[in-house]
Amino acid sequence: xxxxxxxxxxxxxxxxxxxxxxxxxxxxxxxxxxxxxxxxxxxxxxxxxxxxxxxxxxxxxxxxxxxxxxxxxxxxxxxxxxxxxxxxxxxxxxxxxxxxxxxxxxxxxxxxxxxxxxxxxxxxxxxxxxxxxxxxxxxxxxxxxxxxxxxxxxxxxxxxxxxxxxxxxxxxxxxxxxxxxxxxxxxxxxxxxxxxxxxxxxxxxxxxxxxxxxxxxxxxxxxxxxxxxxxxxxxxxxxxxxxxxxxxxxxxx
Length: 253
What we know:
- The protein contains four helices and 16 strands.
- The model is unreliable at 1-20 (pLDDT under 50).
- A hairpin with a 7-residue loop joins strand 8 and strand 9 (134-139).
- 9% of the residues lie in helices and 52% in strands.
- It starts with a strand and ends with a strand.
- The protein is globular and about 50 Å long.
- By secondary structure, the chain is mostly beta strands.
């Protein structure tokens, strides 16, 4: 069985239109999930949409308490990538992200912006704690490659065409860099995560289950996260066993 290994050698500056991308990936949609981790049970709303005018692919995410009496937002984020292509290969290029989380009722905020000329991330933080305030610039890893926001991994892999090809061939790996859009607060919520913004990662095809759901494993920083993808390139389920994490599409939409 032939394996597909996708390792893109791309520059940060190249960008064009993404006309070759499947329209199903770009369709606007809002999906509700039930999330469980070591901190408890929660509700998630995930909204995906594409703004053709600015060539922006956007994902918004909100996390609520599972309690019917509570409507407070515990966590929210927005990630924006530019839809483009290099040598006829469609891809998503991280552009900007904003992430907010509330710990003990106190707000922690971070924003990432890609500085294309400097090939760097400009990170801005605002929180009640001294070490998580201010601004700093973090260079991209040396060399070229594909970079995907953690919040957009499934769609990022789908846009390149990797998911479709892996399913057709019955095997495949996509190598890229994860950009942790919840940094540095995301690392405080889960154990043994890499402490840097960028982490080398592999998205690997694992076949189908009895329900014919397409399964992939995301491997990064010694962690393994299992994704079950839908035909539109998004995911219906996500399991992170080592963290006691599960995120499953809700029966009530």
